[in-house]
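Hi all, posting the design record for the shared folder.

TITLE: backbone redesign
STEP: 1 of 1
STRUCTURE INPUT:
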């Protein structure tokens, strides 16, 4: 896949972030928000008139979370996993050999005043990356004092948009622990490495954890 095409795919995913640039209010009960509160705020955000973005992946996730909040079961071709304790949410949609997953998690920033929130979409066909229109990783900064999320446009050394000529990256968010798995897809084969979170940014090794397959 050409790099310019992949850039376009990821930027479509992040178009919601651009539209949401003012701020996204997070409503919650109790002492602090949980992963469902963050996800619900994101999927319900309405940008200013003229900046609307029709994002099918977000709409499907919204329907799944709404069913979860109302105690309704998911359909046979979808699955929603909510792990409030570990701050992780995963929605999976299945169609024959195709699978689309939307996942969210968050990290506490070192200053104790902010959280970094990640929203990731990844499509696969028989377990192999098959990027769709909404695939990509978007990051948000949540401020505890204001109870609002804003798009985070720095890549925190995750190399969101460019994996070299003709290559691209996909991401796996952690359900437990703090690290992100990055897979670089080549025309032939793939390479995985671990991005380790240190409270401020991710430390990404130059080499590979598993080698090129």
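Okay, here is what came back for every position:
SEQUENCE:
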């Amino acid at each position: 896949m050409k790099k310019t095409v992949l850039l376009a795919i990821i930027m479509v995913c992040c178009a919601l972030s651009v539209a949401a640039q003012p701020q996204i209010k997070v409503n919650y009960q109790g002492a602090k928000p949980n992963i469902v509160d963050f996800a619900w705020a994101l999927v319900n955000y309405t940008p200013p008139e003229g900046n609307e973005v029709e994002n099918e992946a977000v709409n499907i996730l919204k329907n799944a979370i709404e069913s979860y909040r109302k105690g309704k079961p998911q359909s046979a071709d979808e699955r929603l996993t909510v792990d409030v304790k570990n701050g992780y949410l995963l929605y999976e949609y299945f169609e024959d050999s195709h699978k689309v997953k939307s996942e969210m998690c968050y990290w506490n920033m070192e200053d104790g005043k902010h959280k970094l929130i990640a929203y990731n979409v990844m499509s696969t066909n028989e377990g192999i990356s098959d990027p769709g229109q909404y695939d990509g990783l978007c990051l948000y900064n949540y401020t505890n004092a204001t109870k609002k999320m804003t798009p985070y446009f720095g890549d925190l050394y995750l190399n969101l948009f460019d994996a070299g000529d003709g290559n691209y990256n996909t991401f796996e968010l952690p359900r437990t622990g703090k690290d992100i798995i990055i897979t670089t897809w080549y025309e032939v084969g793939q390479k995985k490495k671990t991005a380790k979170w240190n409270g401020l940014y991710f430390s990404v090794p130059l080499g590979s954890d598993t080698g090129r397959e």
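COMMENT: Residues 56-69 form the longest helix (14 residues).
Let me know if anyone wants the other runs.
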